[in-house]
Specification:
Low-confidence stretches: 1-33, 369-417
Structural class: mainly alpha
Radius of gyration: 26 Å
Number of domains: 2
CATH class of the largest domain: Mainly Alpha
Strand content: under 5%
Helix content: 40-55%
Strand order of the largest sheet: 1-2
Shape: globular
Mean pLDDT: 84
Length: about 425
């Protein structure tokens, strides 16, 4: 069952909170009225925060922390102040409003945990958030958007990301003998699926038992968890080889083994990006297929995490070209933060995006980065530095010549005496 918060999030953007697969329900369900409350102090972005406040704040703080920007205390306090006593986060809670367990969601909680880990110094809040995720894990090892609903690949992937960030082994987080990896693997298509779908993730199984269909955003987000990653994505081990598709030598109906899950997802994403012109596509019933910036961004992050940045490079380039439209010229905090996280993982120049994101919130305490380490390493020396070096050489020569003349004069005087 879809909650009002879930429907509102999907109505605003199917890409924001993994709502793409939930879109069919929107045709019969009116979206909640938008909030008219002013944007709270300390929050990044100027849009209505009702459905994405914690989401966009968490992404922004994660990206800025990774850029070595120290955010304002008000920005961090707003995020920590959204946490409920039981450890979970809602999508948004107005100042002074009480927490309601039914409005807390795993997506907001998962990204908030990752943001606080990236910022450092918030271990009690992180521990409470992780405990909330453990307490609200489904019996099959998965997570739903709101507790009490069937699990989905996006929410499960984000929860696993948070566990990795908090150094809580997902293999040890279990319910009824099913751990987090089991829950994630239940959404991945294996050898029983057509060859061109193997490795993909479905959003949710069809309750009516219909055929399982790959979902672009579900695959992009779940693949990061399958590869053992979290936000921000670290640029670690790399391989020149293309990702390996499933070998399919065992039983056709067996779940994808966790050891093969990340590579299988990477192989599927690589094939989809190649076929789609370096981007993934959003398909919603009743609407024409359209490029999906958010799914493409998560796919790029997942490929980089799995050690295949060369397979992600085309998507990163495509996102750079489309970034102005997606981020609404740098005014959409969630999109800007996501694009910045992609460029950071791909080791691209991040100065402009960092400045744009910083401008969407309260002034930072210190250290707004203007260029990436890679750009700084290849930058030409400043002209003043070169002039300074030449002056040192000239002064040294003058001192040497002057010293030689003085010594010569002294010798001549000695000879005359």
């Amino acid at each position: 069952m879809l909650t009002a918060a879930r429907l509102g999030a999907a109505a605003l953007s199917a890409a924001l909170l993994a709502g793409a697969a939930a879109a069919p329900a929107l045709a019969d369900s009116p979206a909640p009225a938008a909030s008219t409350a002013p944007v709270p102090e300390g929050l990044y972005g100027k849009g209505d925060p009702q459905y994405d406040g914690v989401w966009r704040q968490s992404l922004a703080l994660t990206a800025l922390a990774n850029a070595k920007v120290t955010p304002a205390d008000t920005a961090v306090a707003w995020l920590t102040g959204q946490q409920c006593e039981d450890g979970g986060w809602p999508s948004y809670r107005a100042a002074g409003a009480p927490c309601q367990a039914k409005t807390e969601d795993s997506n907001a909680t998962a990204v908030a945990v990752q943001a606080l880990v990236a910022l450092g110094g918030h271990q009690p809040a992180v521990d409470k958030g992780v405990q909330w995720l453990k307490d609200n894990q489904n019996a099959d090892g998965s997570w739903s958007y709101n507790p009490g609903s069937p699990g989905d690949a996006n929410s499960t992937g984000l929860a696993v990301n948070a566990l990795f960030a908090a150094k809580a082994d997902p293999a040890g987080v279990a319910k009824n003998g099913k751990n987090a990896f089991d829950g994630l693997g239940a959404f991945q298509l294996g050898c029983a699926a057509p060859a061109d779908q193997r490795g993909a993730f479905v959003y949710q199984p069809d309750p009516a038992g219909g055929p399982l269909a790959p979902n672009a955003l579900a695959t992009g987000q779940a693949a990061l968890a399958a590869a053992g990653g979290h936000l921000p994505v670290a640029t670690g081990a790399r391989t020149e080889a293309a990702p390996k598709p499933l070998a399919c030598t065992g039983a056709a109906g067996a779940p994808v083994a966790h050891a093969e899950s990340g590579e299988a997802a990477a192989a599927y994403l690589t094939a989809q990006l190649t076929a789609g012109g370096n981007h993934l596509t959003l398909t919603t019933p009743g609407a024409a297929p359209a490029p999906d910036n958010n799914a493409t961004a998560w796919a790029a992050l997942s490929l980089i995490q799995s050690g295949h940045p060369q397979q992600a490079a085309g998507a990163v380039d495509w996102l750079a070209e489309e970034g102005g439209t997606w981020t609404k010229n740098g005014t959409d905090a969630a999109a800007t933060a996501t694009l910045l996280l992609v460029d950071q993982a791909a080791q691209r120049d991040t100065g402009a995006l960092t400045a744009q994101l910083t401008a969407l919130g309260p002034a930072p305490q210190a250290g707004t980065a203007t260029e990436s380490p890679a750009a700084a390493a290849t930058a030409e020396p400043k002209k003043n530095d070169g002039i300074g070096q030449y002056w040192l050489i000239i002064v040294g020569l003058l001192i040497g010549v002057g010293g030689g003349l003085l010594l010569s004069l002294q010798r001549k005087r000695g000879q005359r005496l």
